[in-house]
Design goal:
Elements: E1 2-8, E2 11-20, H1 25-35, E3 41-52, H2 54-70, E4 72-76, H3 80-89, H4 91-94
Parallel strand pairs: 2-3, 3-4
Antiparallel strand pairs: 1-2
Helix pairs in contact: 1-2
């Protein structure tokens, strides 16, 4: 999985490419741990994310909990297969997901 970050002031966009699973979710967790300080708006751009497992969902949930304390979080550009996972798990009700 590839993780790209773009920080502009107190806004952070994280683009994910590939598969977010039990192995790669640790990489995302490390990025989030280092990068969220001072962030007011976190955006996940998932246009190139092919799959997420429950481990990936936990990373989104953890980021959401941090951002509830310091700002907001938005997920955008979700493809159909990843959106199906969000819907099947109820995460579409928990996370703010921008419709494409």
């Amino acid at each position: 999985m590839e993780i790209r970050q773009n920080r502009e002031g107190d806004n952070l966009t994280i683009e994910l490419e590939g598969r977010l699973d039990a192995i790669t979710s640790h990489d995302l967790g490390a990025v989030l741990e280092k990068s969220l300080e001072g962030v007011k708006q976190l955006i996940f751009d998932l246009k190139d994310l092919q799959y997420t497992s429950s481990a990936g969902l936990r990373q989104f949930l953890g980021a959401q909990q941090v951002m509830e304390e310091q700002g907001s979080m938005l997920i955008r550009n979700v493809n159909e297969s990843v959106m199906d996972i969000f819907e099947e798990t109820g995460f579409d009700e928990i996370l703010e997901i921008e419709e494409s």
